[in-house]
Amino acid sequence: xxxxxxxxxxxxxxxxxxxxxxxxxxxxxxxxxxxxxxxxxxxxxxxxxxxxxxxxxxxxxxxxxxxxxxxxxxxxxxxxxxxxxxxxxxxxxxxxxxxxxxxxxxxxxxxxxxxxxxxxxxxxxxxxxxxxxxxxxxxxxxxxxxxxxxxxxxxxxxxxxxxxxxxxxxxxxxxxxxxxxxxxxxxxxxxxxxxxxxxxxxxxxxxxxxxxxxxxxxxxxxxxxxxxxxxxxxxxxxxxxxxxxxxxxxxxxxxxxxxxxxxxxxxxxxxxxxxxxxxxxxxxxxxxxxxxxxxxxxxxxxxxxxxxxxxxxxxxxxxxxxxxxxxxxxxxxxxxxxxxxxxxxxxxxxxxxxxxxxxxxxxxxxxxxxxxxxxxxxxxxxxxxxxxxxxxxxxxxxxxxxxxxxxxxxxxxxxxxxxxxxxxxxxxxxxxxxxxxxxxxxxxxxxxxxxxxxxxxxxxxxxxxxxxxxxxxxxxxxxxxxxxxxxxxxxxxxxxxxxxxxxxxxxxxxxxxxxxxxxxxxxxxxxxxxxxxxxxx
Length: 537
Prior knowledge:
Layout: H1 7-14, H2 18-21, E1 30-33, H3 41-49, E2 57-61, H4 69-77, E3 82-86, E4 88-90, H5 91-94, H6 109-120, E5 128-131, H7 135-143, E6 151-157, H8 159-166, E7 182-187, H9 191-197, E8 203-205, H10 208-211, H11 214-218, E9 223-228, E10 231-233, E11 238-239, E12 248-250, H12 254-263, E13 268-272, E14 276-277, E15 282-283, E16 285-286, E17 303-306, E18 309-312, H13 318-327, H14 331-343, E19 367-371, E20 374-380, H15 386-394, H16 398-405, H17 414-417, E21 428-435, E22 442-452, E23 457-464, H18 473-487, E24 492-497, H19 502-508, E25 513-520, E26 523-533
Parallel strand pairs: 1-2, 2-3, 5-6, 5-9, 6-7, 7-8, 9-13, 10-16, 13-17, 23-24
Antiparallel strand pairs: 4-12, 10-11, 14-15, 17-18, 19-20, 20-21, 21-22, 22-23, 24-26, 25-26
């Protein structure tokens, strides 16, 4: 008889009915059941049917279908026959609650879309990405359609990633490690996804001890890890319990990827979360995590994104972290968070509750400009910009300070400039031009308006660092301020300056409105109304 080592022959010889296979299990043994779509459902069904023949069998599983017979039997037998040890808690279980849909709040998609667009701005072309599954991550992947040469090193391969491959966004050419290959440890999706994966040489699946190894992760260029958090406290401690129909939790690789990204050249870690839970009645940004496991320690957290903005916690003091986290919390909870923070000593006594704490950051005013080969972010000011604004004024020369403040100044104390960053974005608005890494950038230009409620006109003022003058930053800021003021119901703008400040006069006259000029003592007053367009020559 001729023997062969051909695997298919061995496979056929080893085939047995499921009823025979489970007889190999002995009392007291531990049985691992594969995960997600890889779960051997027929074997599981037979095992559950024969469960009364076993004693003290421990079932170990990761992501699985919570409606399987094993779960139901384990609940009834009180662990005498089958003891389920699950390293997963999440959305699969919530499908069993679908019949009680009134208790489930679906994810708010508009907030997911906003968060996705904010995250997309943090991701450079040529980055290698990891992203967890869920509604908000799916919206984030949609927002990445305009990127180029992305790579993938991730726990989960999803249909959103498949779409980006078909669009040519994901090429894996610039990963710097495993070039040309998508690296993952699992996949979740529909039939189209599995057809795409079948015999696809550009995709490699590896065990978690490889994919989740921080040292391996760090070898990828510009490694960006994007994960969903369920709650974050004011100092940056992160919880990541599961959300219905959104993402999974348990023994996760979140911290592995965050630490791997931190070691990657140009790497970033991003945590995303909607600002509220329970139909808007609870804030996901909380004073402290009570009775909740900390998944990511505060020292490992970098970017946090809600629909109200982005904050980079890295390198920030506890007070700076607290102010930043409050600024991206839902406005309905900011006062409560502020008072809790003061009570816990996270904020100094000089910090006061102002109307600006309720301001909603106008994300739509953000715009990145490429000027002379340098990326400059144009955006509204935030409470955390306090020191940056001060440093901007301290860096200005004497003549520019006099043009801006009408007299010499040698100090710019917090109390003197806080009106520029403690704003409500409606009655007062400050726009900044910032260069450098997000969260550590340098302010190179400031434009602001302050509403005079007596006549509904807003006064504007500007300052531009000497090395950035002549780059039309003032014109860009003026346009942003005018657009925002008009949308906020302001009637028009005015500026008070000296007749010798020709730059300010020329800047004001770039507006597409009729400009009126008058004098107040030795100062010139320029004004315009939004309902009075300039004559077209």
